[in-house]
């Protein structure tokens, strides 16, 4: 019997991963910080905050769940406190452990303090198997822990259905309204884009929400862009696919990122990607060929997307997604890893 113990935070990415691999396992148990009100996987709630109390109580509870559930494999997502507590709890067991890095756990957390860096290094050194969604992040993992073995490169894949509709003069943004994602700089760039006389019909559609939503609306107003910028709020999958499919251009310029599922979705739906100059993005985008990599945030970078051969870029992106970005392609990679561990 194949039994998966998954340890991860209560986010949509966790459940997307479970949906990706659930058919391979006979039983699944999720340990997370909060039970989902949407998904119905068997769940144990524990606190993963870094405290002395949790160092004892959370580790003890994970040990108990390992003993009771007797998993075939333990798969931990994020090399942060989730991995730290889980790996401490599993140290004296014979259950193989997989650690999947997500991005900020490797690219941001180790820079926050000496102790956090040591925690991430401990996690990387003590997991039996490692996965990353980009070769860049895998390289950063090796910098933190040079002795680690092979790292599987795989993402969670996308499940997107492009809407059959004509492209419109739309620039689409759908990242969270947090400082990290610099949506304010997208609005500023769109104001520059609109200064061209032939752009009067173009509009910027801003999806998602966050702590900066009101400030972003004020930013659009202060730039005289109220009528040209549409805030559509938090949207469902079908509406997200609709905007990807309608938009000629998709923009995402975060300060830090691993492989963005949103980028893969935009590529699949034929929206030309305009992305920040990050190593993970350069693994997917060749600037000037199938998208734009923004090197100067003060430039008219949205206009650069119009200089690309649109049909060629769309075709290149769709082929790349079919090869490396679909759920099917990445499910196969993870299942091969499980099979190599479990032996069946």
Overall pLDDT metric: 95
* CATH class designation of the largest domain: Alpha Beta
- How would a textbook summarize the main sheet? 7 strands, parallel
Distance between termini? 10 Å
Tell me what the structure shows:
The chain has 344 residues and is α/β, with parallel strands linked by helices. The protein has two domains: 3-157 and 327-342, Rossmann fold (3-Layer(aba) Sandwich), CATH 3.40.50.2000; 168-324, Rossmann fold (3-Layer(aba) Sandwich), CATH 3.40.50. Helices cover 43% and strands 17% of the residues. It is built from 15 helices and 13 strands. It has helices at 12-21, 52-69, 81-90, 104-107, 109-112, 114-126, 135-144, 183-193, 213-222, 237-246, 261-268, 279-282, 301-304, 310-324, 327-342, and strands at residues 3-7, 27-32, 43-45, 73-77, 97-100, 129-132, 151-153, 168-173, 203-207, 229-233, 247-252, 272-276, 292-294. The strands form two sheets. A seven-stranded parallel beta sheet has the order 3-2-1-4-5-6-7, sandwiched between helices. A six-stranded parallel beta sheet has the order 10-9-8-11-12-13, with helices on both faces. Helix 2 packs across helix 3 and helix 8 runs parallel beside helix 9 (213-222). The longest helix has 18 residues, at 52-69. The radius of gyration is 21 Å and the shape is elongated. The chain starts with a strand and ends with a helix. The model has no long low-confidence stretch (mean pLDDT 95).
């Amino acid at each position: 019997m194949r039994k998966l113990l998954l340890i991860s935070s209560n986010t949509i990415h966790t459940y997307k991963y479970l949906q990706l691999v659930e058919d391979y396992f006979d039983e699944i148990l999720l340990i997370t910080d909060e039970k989902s009100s949407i998904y119905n996987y068997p769940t144990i709630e524990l606190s993963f905050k870094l405290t002395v109390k949790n160092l004892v109580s959370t580790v003890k509870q994970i040990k108990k769940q390992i003993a009771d559930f007797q998993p075939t494999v333990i798969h931990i997502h994020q090399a942060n406190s989730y991995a730290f507590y889980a790996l401490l709890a599993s140290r004296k067991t014979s259950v193989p452990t997989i650690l999947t890095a997500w991005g900020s756990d490797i690219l941001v957390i180790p820079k926050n303090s000496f102790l956090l860096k040591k925690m991430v290094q401990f996690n990387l050194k003590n997991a039996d198997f490692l996965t990353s969604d980009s070769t860049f992040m895998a390289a950063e993992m090796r910098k933190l822990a040079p002795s680690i073995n092979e790292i599987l490169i795989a993402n969670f894949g996308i499940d997107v259905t492009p809407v059959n509709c004509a492209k419109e003069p739309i620039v689409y943004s759908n990242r969270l309204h947090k400082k990290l994602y610099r949506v304010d700089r997208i609005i500023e760039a769109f104001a520059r884009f609109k200064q061209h006389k032939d752009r009067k019909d173009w509009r910027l559609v801003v999806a998602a929400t966050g702590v900066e939503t009101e400030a972003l609306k004020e930013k659009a107003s202060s730039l005289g862009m109220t009528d040209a910028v549409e805030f559509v709020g938090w949207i469902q999958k079908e509406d997200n696919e609709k905007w990807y499919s309608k938009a000629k251009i998709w923009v995402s310029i975060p300060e830090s990122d691993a492989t963005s599922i949103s980028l893969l979705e935009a590529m699949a739906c034929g929206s030309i990607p305009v992305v920040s100059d990050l190593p993970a993005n350069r693994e997917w985008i060749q600037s000037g060929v199938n998208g734009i990599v923004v090197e100067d945030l003060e430039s008219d970078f949205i206009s650069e997307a119009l200089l690309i051969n649109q049909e060629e870029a769309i075709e290149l992106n769709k082929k790349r997604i079919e090869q490396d970005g679909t759920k099917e392609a990445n499910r196969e990679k993870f299942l091969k890893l499980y099979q190599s561990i479990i032996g069946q």
